[in-house]
Design brief:
The structure holds two protein chains of two kinds. Chain A has eleven helices and twelve strands. By secondary structure, chain A is of the alpha+beta class. The radius of gyration of chain A is 18 Å and the shape is globular. The model of chain A has no long low-confidence stretch (mean pLDDT 97). Chain B folds into three domains: 2-27 and 470-604, Aldehyde oxidase/xanthine dehydrogenase, molybdopterin binding domain (Aldehyde Oxidoreductase, domain 4, 2-Layer Sandwich); 32-137 and 201-278, Aldehyde oxidase/xanthine dehydrogenase, a/b hammerhead (Aldehyde Oxidoreductase, domain 3); 290-464 and 609-756, Aldehyde oxidase/xanthine dehydrogenase, molybdopterin binding domain (Aldehyde Oxidoreductase, domain 4, 2-Layer Sandwich). The mean pLDDT of chain B is 95. The interface between A and B is medium-sized, with 20 and 24 residues. Chain B: This is Carbon-monoxide dehydrogenase large subunit. Chain B: Residues 23-138 form the Aldehyde oxidase/xanthine dehydrogenase a/b hammerhead domain.
Chain lengths: 264, 762
């Protein structure tokens, strides 16, 4: 690890100001950035920790039936506090990494990093969430822009994520055997006006919506409706030690079916 | 060889000293403090092959806090590492294996320079100032590919084929196949794995007064490390002290000296300061010895009744880029063992060791025995399927019966004891072999594939059943202050101290405290080490030998004390009794009340190793939609001879099964076409975790051996030996129920799915 300065602002305004300085970089729960620093793969001169900002923490239900989660809220907190209103999301949060990861990692950090194998991007895209930053509100459909790429600008911080609460939802993760990240993860959410299906882990372009499944499930929300679909094209999917693109494409269909069957 | 009067041997006891480890108070080499210690960082090649065109360390030498930077050009006076093992019947010249690369690099991860600085950060900063230019050359990491004419040569001046070891009678084998009713052939691929010790390797060298050097490191064989570093440094071994306290996993990977051990000693001697090196996990994946990989064509000939007539094996295995001390051992040392527990009159083996552009091989828990039993037991299952026979029945039909002991196998192993059929029956009952069809039907109803896999295992422990073994040292001292045992067989988590105390108690009837001294080459003058499941057979035998001398000496003392002739004294349960009288004195009283002091030492070898054996039964369920494999149940009937401590034996079996199951289902070291290690971290190298393992039921089936004074066979590796074939047989059995397979390890979800769908495996 190279030396760096660390600041821990206690308000969003202070954090934004600190991030305005040259080569400053935000630090959420550190579950990606700290290992990167330990390998000397990054060399920021200043890290702005977002973990001491009270206004960025917590989970609450909004008047329009969404769950509002502060960007600095860790996974363990979401697992606990979303359980009653949004069990599909609570279940997702409860199965990220291990207890140590869940008590450090944050939803804002996960979405800002947009790892192609992370779980939260599937929930955000699968619910049509709104990503609130210090500057603006971004619809999930506009936010994710490919592997590790998002609509965030330099110095922009995710302050809150609003996820509309579905009538039924479920997240199915098939774990990569070594890292236990999602080899493929599928989030299915049923709303009054239709069904959303978001897939993580599989595509070279990061999280995506499986529109054929959404259409089929919107008219018939049953595992059988997925059976009738052809498997997504594997040619644009990740192919590595742990599975070919075709295998991942196949898992997308299997997990979508299982998510629908398990949705509650 | 169960002796009357043993009261501690055979008792389950928890390990002494676990509380320290559980509280994080273990004393590993990384915990050792040394005033003014410098940090040594090893700069490694990130190319698998190529000439070093430029290596400029001038800026690094001038960097803040840097005391020295060594390259291949700074190794004056060093001797190459020596071979400790050459396959029987082969002549192999060593490679010029020095700690740092000289003209070329030959694998990714090869040490190129060593930076010694005030701190880790200073050393890492300096390493970034080194200009290293390697002319990238083609690399080869697969043994078969490397053995082909025209393959990139690892060493320009010698072919990649290092040795070809042929054992047995080729003509007899061919004749047996020609006249057999059934001849089965299969290509079997055994994957390459890493030991993955919990504690990464480390070394701390400290200059001592009088020109001696102290090396603190985690190792299973301090005396070996001492001899090997002395050899490479060109020093009299008397000038080196090696000390290990806690060692966080060894498994064969820590059974000798490494380049980094030499580098810290060289730096400490030249700089007059303590010097420390500590591997990261990334360093470990690149630079720990590797093991197991082989690709073999196996042939099993059977008669019409399914009796084995002949077994043939023709294979290739990588040795790595350098001939490390034991690089040629895992793939060649146990070829005679491939016949396993069966009467197989003819065995013919050809094994080739091949240079490849990777770190070199060394034994890893089992050292050639898991590979051997995997080959045999896969062939038995394939034969059972081909002949339409029950796999248990085919095994039973061919097993060497207990009444046939001692039994000589075709290539000269002599099995002295064992009841293989009894072990088989134990697991068939415990695992409800007969009820499998019903359980499979239940799984099918849920859309799952169920498989069951047997393995009958045997493994030469201690160094093989052929001939005299390596010796081990034990010194016993008794006096009023207590008992002390010094031995060369140290502990890396097995619980040696606990079982040594149990044994010493029963050998001497000594109830008092016992201090165990091991791991320090000054405190223990001689020794060999802990490997090959040899400790109870080797160190236990040395203890028994020394204990006999103690009793003889104490008998004389007791005779004087009781005022009777020595011939009138009988020793039992710690007491010397004058025959026909009620006059008794205990060994303890002689030491305490009489102030006697006894000591005896032995550095002895047994005439033969031992042959732990047993049967394993695994049951798995495969999800055909995802390829995921779950091990549902696992049971083992294990014959480790005299069971000193059943709890610790079970622990050894559990750990061994976990490592074998890990290889079968998850682990593999994978290289890309440039020779870069793809699975170089826990993000890509999959280890089994607690929630992957079923409850592992261990049934003790001891048949004590006469090979050593305790009747104990080895217990450290048998779990691994049986687990590879049992798990893979179960997976292949599940696949066969869907008309798919067989497949090679590892049975990862993607590979199982590919096998089920007949797609190319990743």
């Amino acid at each position: 690890m190279y030396n760096f300065d660390l600041v821990r602002p206690t308000s969003i305004d202070e954090a934004v100001a600190a991030l305005g300085e040259e080569e400053a970089q935000p630090l959420g729960g550190g579950q990606t950035l700290i290992p990167t620093l330990k390998q000397r793969l990054a060399m920021p001169s200043k890290l702005v920790s977002l973990t001491a900002i009270a206004e960025m923490k917590g989970v609450c239900k909004t008047d329009d039936n969404a769950l509002a989660i502060g960007g600095g809220t860790n996974h363990a907190t979401v697992a606990q506090e979303a359980a009653a209103d949004f069990p599909g999301l609570a279940h997702l949060a409860a199965n990220i990494g291990d207890p140590a990861v869940r008590s450090r990692g944050t939803i804002g950090g996960s979405l800002a990093n947009n790892d192609p194998s992370a779980c939260y991007p599937a929930a955000a895209l699968g619910t049509g969430a709104t990503i609130k930053t210090n500057k603006r509100e971004i619809a999930a459909d506009d936010y994710f822009q490919g592997m590790f790429a998002t609509a965030l600008e330099e110095g922009e911080i995710i302050t809150e994520v609003r996820l509309p609460i579905p009538e039924a939802s479920n997240y199915q993760k098939f774990e990569q055997p070594a890292s236990r990240f999602a080899l493929v993860g599928v989030f299915v959410a049923k709303y009054a006006d239709g069904v959303r299906v978001a897939v993580t882990g599989a595509s070279n372009d990061g999280v995506f919506r499986w529109s054929e499944a959404e259409a089929a499930l919107s008219s018939d929300f049953s595992a059988g409706a997925v059976d009738g679909l052809s498997t997504p094209d594997g040619s644009g999917m990740i192919s590595d030690l742990h599975g070919s693109g075709d295998y991942r494409a196949h898992l997308v269909k299997v997990l979508t079916k299982r998510a629908v069957a398990a949705a509650s | 060889m169960q002796a009357a009067g043993w009261t501690r041997i055979g008792k389950a006891q928890t390990r002494d000293g676990d509380d320290l480890l559980l509280r994080g108070e273990g004393r590993f080499a990384g915990d050792a403090r040394a005033e003014g210690a410098l940090w040594l960082h090893v700069l490694r090649s990130d190319h698998a092959a190529g000439e070093i065109r430029a290596l400029d360390v001038a800026a690094a030498r001038e960097a803040p806090g840097v005391h020295a930077v060594y390259t291949g050009a700074d190794q004056d006076g060093l001797q190459p590492f020596a071979l400790r093992y050459v396959p029987a019947g082969c002549e192999v010249a060593p490679t010029p294996f020095l700690p740092l690369a000289t003209d070329r690099v030959r694998f990714a991860g090869e040490p190129v320079a060593a930076i010694v600085a005030e701190s880790r950060d200073a050393a890492l900063d300096a390493a970034e100032l080194i200009l290293l230019d390697i002319a990238d050359a083609p690399a080869v990491t697969d043994a078969r590919a490397a053995a082909v004419d025209g393959a990139p040569r690892v060493w320009a001046d010698r072919p990649n084929l290092v040795f070809t070891q042929e054992l047995g009678d080729r003509a007899a084998f061919e004749e047996a196949c020609a006249s057999a009713d059934h001849v089965l052939t299969a290509r079997l691929e055994i994957s390459r794995v890493a030991a993955v010790a919990l504690e990464p390797r480390n070394a701390l060298a400290t200059p001592l007064d009088g020109g001696r050097l102290h090396l603190r490191t985690g190792t299973q064989a301090p005396h070996r490390v001492k001899g090997e570093v002395a050899h490479v440094l060109g020093l009299d071994p008397g000038r080196i002290v090696v000390e290990a306290e806690h060692t966080g996993g060894s498994f064969g990977m820590r059974n000798g000296a490494y380049p980094e051990d030499v580098l810290v000693l060289m730096a400490a001697a030249r700089l007059g300061r303590p010097v420390r090196w500590q591997a990261t996990r990334s360093d470990s994946f690149l630079s720990d010895t590797q093991s197991r990989e082989m690709s073999v064509d196996a042939t099993l000939a059977l008669d019409a009744d399914g009796r084995f007539l002949a077994l043939g094996v023709d294979g290739y295995a990588p040795v790595g880029a350098q001939l490390g001390q034991m690089a040629m051992h895992p793939m060649s040392s146990n070829m005679p063992g491939i016949v396993g527990v069966y009467r197989t009159p003819v065995l013919h083996t050809v094994m080739r060791g091949v240079f490849v552009n990777t770190m070199h091989m060394a034994p890893y828990r089992g050292a050639g025995r898991p590979e051997a039993i995997y080959i045999m037991e896969r062939m038995v299952d394939l034969a059972a399927a081909a002949l339409g026979l029950d796999p248990a029945e085919l095994r039973r039909r061919n097993m060497i019966p207990a009444a046939a002991m001692p039994y000589a196998t075709p290539l000269g192993y002599v099995y002295d004891s064992g009841d293989f059929e009894a072990a088989l029956d134990t697991v068939l009952t415990a695992g409800d072999w007969a009820g499998f069809a019903d359980r499979r039907a239940d799984s099918q109803a849920r859309g799952m594939l169920r498989g069951i896999g047997l393995a009958a295992a045997i493994e030469p422990a201690g160094g093989g059943p052929k001939g005299a073994q390596l010796p081990e040292f034990a010194r016993i001292e008794l006096d009023a202050s207590g008992a002390r045992l010094a031995t060369g067989s140290g502990d890396a988590g097995q619980g040696h101290g606990t079982v040594f105390r149990q044994v010493l108690h029963d050998l001497l009837g000594w109830d008092g405290d016992v201090t165990v001294v091991a791991g320090d080459t000054d405190a223990v003058p001689k020794g060999v080490g802990t490997f090959g499941s040899r400790t109870m057979g080797a160190a236990g035998h040395a203890m028994a030998t020394a204990a006999r001398e103690i009793i003889a000496k104490a008998t004389a003392q007791a005779a004087r004390h009781l005022d009777v002739p020595e011939g009138e004294i009988a020793f039992a349960d710690g007491s010397f009794k004058a025959r026909g009288t009620n006059r008794v004195v205990t060994l303890h009283e002689l030491c305490t009340a009489q102030g006697a002091r006894f000591e005896a030492e032995a550095f002895v070898a047994t005439d033969a190793g031992t042959l732990p054996n047993g049967a394993h039964l695994a049951e798995v369920e495969v999800d055909p939609e995802t390829g995921a494999v779950q091990v549902l149940s696992y049971c083992v009937a294990d014959d480790v001879g005299t069971v000193i401590n059943p709890l610790l034996v079970e622990g050894q079996v559990h750990g061994g099964v976990a490592q074998g199951l890990g290889q079968a289902l998850y682990e593999t070291l994978t290289y890309d076409e440039t020779g870069a290690l793809l699975s170089g971290s826990f993000m890509d190298y999959a280890l089994p975790r607690a929630d992957d393992l079923p409850f592992i039921a261990v049934h003790h089936s001891p048949t004590p051996t006469r090979a050593n004074a305790l009747g104990a066979k080895g217990a450290g590796e048998s779990g691994t030996v049986g687990a590879l074939p049992a798990v893979m047989n179960a997976v292949c059995n599940a696949l066969a129920s869907a008309g798919a397979g067989p497949m090679d390890m590892p049975a990862t979800p993607a590979r199982v799915w590919a096998a089920l769908n007949r797609k190319e495996t990743p």
